[in-house]
Amino acid sequence: MFVPVAFLGGISGEIYRQFALTIAVSVLISAFSALSLSPALSAMLLRPSRGQQRRGLLARFFARFNQAFDWTTHRYLSGVKLLIRRSVLALAGLAGIFVMAGWLFHVLPAGFLPAEDQGVFFVAVRLPDGASLERNRAVTAEIQEIVRTTPGVVDLTTFGGFDFLTQTSNSNVSTVIATLAPWDERKAPTCSSSRS
Questions:
Q1: What separation in angstroms does the CA of 30 have from each of 17, 36, 192?
Q2: How many angstroms separate the CA atoms of 89 and 79, rounded?
Q3: pLDDT tens-digit map of 179-189
Q4: SS3 of 96, please?
Q5: Which residues pair with 180 in a beta bridge?
Q6: Confidence at residue 72, expressed as pLDDT on a 0 to 100 scale
Q7: Less Cβ crowding at N or C end of the chain, within 10 Å?
Q8: Backbone angles phi, psi at 9, to 5 degrees
Q9: Nearest-CA neighbor of 173 among 117, 130, 109?
Q10: Is the Cα dihedral 43, 44, 45, 49 positive or negative?
Q11: Mean pLDDT over all residues of the chain?
């Protein structure tokens, strides 16, 4: 039931996606454990006496499963014994995990929103409800002129009657998308993305 949450759109979808996927994966792991490992442990604890040998297809399946489970258990225990005897290997592995985690902290983005500009910005125009299309056009034309004269803006795209933020159409909304010049062409202080 958590998987649909991972497909929500917008900011709420981005925020909840990691939690939804984490919970969904943990539920799958729990289901695998409940359907395979717990019954196998019960079968080991409630194993029939050696004098009773069962026959049939299901008995052969369980015999093969028990052999595979025993093999996995012995491999796991031998690995643990090796790490206990040679603790330097365990400490080296742990140190490697720490180094990898530190490297990932530096490589992966640290925030939800990127720190640098993407070379474009949006201007949402919203007039009072019931505003006419002519009034919306006049206000949008004024905003276009202001944005066009802003240093670093090279192109404008306007969607009259469409609100990009809410994905709705109405006579009192417009969206102006301004495309900026490439980074290397915006060296002047008036074109800096760090200005507020």
A1: 20, 10, 51
A2: 11
A3: 888 877 777 76
A4: helix
A5: 153
A6: 94
A7: C
A8: -90, 175
A9: 130
A10: positive
A11: 83
Q: What share of the chain is helix, strand, coil (3-state, %, to 5)?
A: 60, 15, 25
Sheet harboring 153-163: ordered strands across?
Answer: 120-126, 168-180, 153-163
Task: Dump strand ranges (E) for the chain.
Answer: 120-126, 153-163, 168-180
For the chain, state the CA radius of gyration. 31
Per-residue confidence at 106, pLDDT binned at 50, 70, 90?
confident
Taking the C-alpha atoms of residue 177 and residue 147, their distance in angstroms, rounded to an integer, is 9
Distance from C-alpha of 168 to C-alpha of 4, rounded to nearest angstrom:
23
- Rounded to a whole number, what is the distance in angstroms from the first to the last CA of the chain? 43
Q: In the prediction, which pLDDT does 191 show? A: 64
Long-range contacts of 160-164 (CB under 8 A, 24+ apart): 160/133, 160/136, 161/133, 161/136, 163/124, 163/126, 164/122, 164/124
Tokens of 102: 């530190």
Contact 178, 124 (CB under 8 A): no
CA dihedral 181, 186, 190, 195 (to 10 degrees): 90
Query: Residues 2, 24: contact at Cβ < 8 Å?
Result: yes
Q: Name which of 44, 79, 50, 46 is nearest 65 in CA terms.
A: 44
The C-alpha atoms of residue 80 and residue 25 are separated, in whole angstroms, by 26
